[in-house]
Each structure stands twice: as C-alpha cells, then as structure tokens.
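User: Sequence recovery, please. Input:
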C-alpha cells in the first residue's frame, strides 16, 4: 500500500509541476504548496488510485506481511539455534537421505487440514533440496482412538515392514483426508492392502509393545517441546508452528544449511 501511495503522490506531483510551476527550476516549497493544494481540493485522489489497483494492493500487503513475519521468525530461529531439541527418532521411517544435513521432524495428524497443507509444502521442498533434507513423521493425532490415531498406528506398523510403503501410505492418507475422516478403518485397511502390506504381520505389530512405545514417545516428546497444536516442525533445531508458506519454510532450511 505504501508503494502505491507513493506512486499516487508521484502522479499528483507531475500534475502539480505542470499546473503550478511552469519554470524550469521548481523549488521544494513550490512543490509542497502544490501538493497540499491538490490534496486539499481532492482528498480522495490517493484512495481512488488504490481502489483502482485493489488486487495489487492486496499483493503488496501480503508481501509486507510475509516479510515482517520472516524477520520475526529469523529472530526466533537465532534463539532456537542456541538450544538442542532432543526427540526420539529410533525405528521411525525416514524419507530422504539419512545423513542429510537438515532433518525435518514433523509432529502431525493425518486428519488435520493444516497438516495436509503443510505436507504439500514439505513434499515440494524435498524436491527442491533432493540431497539436503530428511523427513521424520511423529504422531500427534487429535483423537488417538479416532481415524487419525488409527492411521498413525498403521503408518508405524507398515514402516516396520517396508519404509517405502509407509511413505506411500502417508501420501495416500493426506491426499484422501476426507475419505479417512468419513470412512475410517475400512479406508485405512484397504489402503494397506493395496500397497501389498503383509496384513497378518501388520495386525500383529499393531498390537505389539514396540508400536505402542513409539506412539507414547511421540506424545511425550511433544509435551516436552510444548507443542500446542499441529502441524509443528523441527528443522534441525528451528521451530516452525503451523502451515507456513513455502518461502518461509525455505528460509528455515536455508538458515540451517548456512549453520552447517
């Protein structure tokens, strides 16, 4: 909005220069007097310019908001870097290179709309940084006994058999979040079957102590970090809360890479 206002004032200035100042040299006082008179006589002139460019105004406002938010986040991230954030990741499926310099740990819920949005950003970023990122999914379903909790348990159990199939299951759950919510267990089970999962072993692992321990560890780690909602990410030690725009998420990755 500020840029558009300046542009409007420049138009006013040009008009004032031709209307009030015919000399080759225009003094500052003459310009100021001309602008004051034009704006006094036409108080809505700037607003009219802004109204005629309303879409551009919204774009500029959003850019300014994102820039301010980025500066605030970078300040927070510099503080985040000073303290290691320990979470348990043993026996979790890892997407990407296990020795990647930047590890994204996602506390998420397959039934959460914002988690679904964030998963798309993370998927795109994994393609943007093919050699630099690894993703680990930790489970924080709103309803542990509902579809989200069930899908989380299946993801862990499938990962015990085949990590690739676990990540294919992950993508299917987020891509079909509405079906997960409406159909529940039948959809979760059929997805596992379609992926060629050993269903007998899966049912055994779903009841096993290892799976229950992993799910409990995720809940405990979330409590220690003070996670209040999903999605919540650790980009190495940098904290991201919510489904940030891709460019802001990218800023955290770049900062982590620069530290490395």
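Assistant: Recovered sequence (260 residues):
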């Amino acid at each position: 909005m500020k840029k558009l206002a300046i542009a409007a004032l420049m138009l006013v200035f040009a008009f004032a220069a031709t209307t009030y100042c015919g000399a080759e040299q225009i003094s500052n006082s003459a310009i100021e007097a001309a602008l004051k008179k034009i704006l006094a006589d036409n108080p809505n002139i700037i607003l009219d310019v802004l109204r005629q460019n309303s879409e551009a105004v919204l774009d500029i406002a959003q850019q300014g908001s994102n820039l301010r938010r980025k500066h605030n986040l970078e300040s927070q991230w510099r503080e985040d870097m000073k303290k290691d954030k320990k979470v348990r990741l043993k026996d979790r499926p890892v997407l990407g290179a296990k020795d990647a310099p930047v590890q994204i740990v996602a506390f998420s819920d397959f039934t959460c709309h914002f988690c679904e949005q964030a998963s798309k950003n993370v998927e795109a970023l994994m393609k943007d940084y093919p050699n630099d990122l690894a993703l680990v999914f930790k489970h924080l379903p709103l309803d542990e006994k509902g579809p989200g909790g069930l899908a989380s348990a299946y993801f862990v159990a499938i990962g015990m058999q085949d990590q690739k199939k676990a990540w294919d299951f992950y993508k299917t759950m987020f891509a079909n979040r509405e079906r997960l919510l409406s159909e529940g267990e039948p959809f979760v089970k059929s997805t596992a079957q379609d992926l060629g999962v050993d269903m007998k072993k899966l049912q055994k692992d779903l009841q096993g102590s290892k799976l229950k321990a992993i799910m409990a560890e995720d809940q405990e780690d979330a409590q220690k970090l003070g996670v209040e909602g999903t999605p919540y990410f650790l980009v190495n030690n940098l904290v991201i809360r919510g489904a940030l725009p891709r460019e802001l998420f990218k800023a955290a990755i770049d900062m982590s890479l620069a530290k490395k």
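The first strand starts at residue 94 and ends at 96.
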